[in-house]
Amino acid sequence: MQKINDYFDENGIKIEKYIYKNGNRIIKTDTEKYEVKIKKSNTKEIHDYLRSKGFNNFVNIENDYNDPYEIYKYIDDDTDVKDKSINLVYLLSSLHNKTTTYQETNEDNIKNIYETITNKLEKISRYYYNLQDNIETKLYMSPAEYLLIRNISNIYNSINNSKYYINDWYNIKKNIKKERIALLHNNISLDNFIDKKDKKFKNWEKAKKNYVVYDFYNFYKNNYKDLELNSLFDIYQSKYKYTEDELLLFKSLLFMPWIIELKENNYNNTVIVANLLEYLDKVKSFELEHNQENQKTNNKELNEQNNNI
Known about the structure:
It is a single chain. This protein is of the alpha+beta class. It is built from ten helices and nine strands. It has helices at 4-10, 43-52, 81-99, 107-136, 143-150, 152-173, 213-223, 229-239, 244-255, 266-307, and strands at residues 15-21, 24-29, 33-38, 69-73, 101-104, 178-184, 193-194, 200-201, 208-210. Strands 1-2-3-4 form a four-stranded antiparallel sheet, with helices on one face. The relative contact order is 0.12.
């Protein structure tokens, strides 16, 4: 089994120092930088599949696929975040378009997704009811508790919206004979996207076939504070438009609040509550904007039909 240093020695590459960045191990040599990762998945299988689908926008491994580690050339990327996010969304839509396949709808899988989401929503709902009861028994609330209680209806409304959309999804999905899936990168982030002349995704160890909505949902949830995601979603939809059932599943996931834990630090608690409320506000704005766009489209189609009568 070849060791990491052996790879560099055999290729006449002189290691100057080791750097750790965002939890990743970077090796600086006299000519290049390399990122070294412990092998966690069958990278060769993923890369071969992507090549077979005509998607070559991934960072190639430098060493042998059979090694227990992976070596990649490290590419510095200082592209403007807003420009980078737009290019990321275009590449994501390309990945989904090129790897989309159709399969028979699996009723057991649909039921499992439905039950998993509804059970999770029930758990979240019980958690916030209990938390509310506990806070309201206190004579004096902390700033975080007061902020939460003042806005607790936003959390319950979001839970109800998530339930509404997953119920609609399930009712529609039960009657669909075929469905589409695609290869998900499953770890979409600005850090995992190289925005150079040859745009590429890296870190494919979580990649798997599934419903396409999960990639953009995770990207939205992880970047709601820093990016204008409504316009990014519109760009993505212009290249890969969700079906009715996909949009319902996406909305159900989007509206699902996460469970927050209030600890000893009042400042940190207030930030935690504020972050959740900010997320829910942005999701609500997303739905409002999307519904308005749908109404405009429906009105346009109706007018066109009336003109043709």
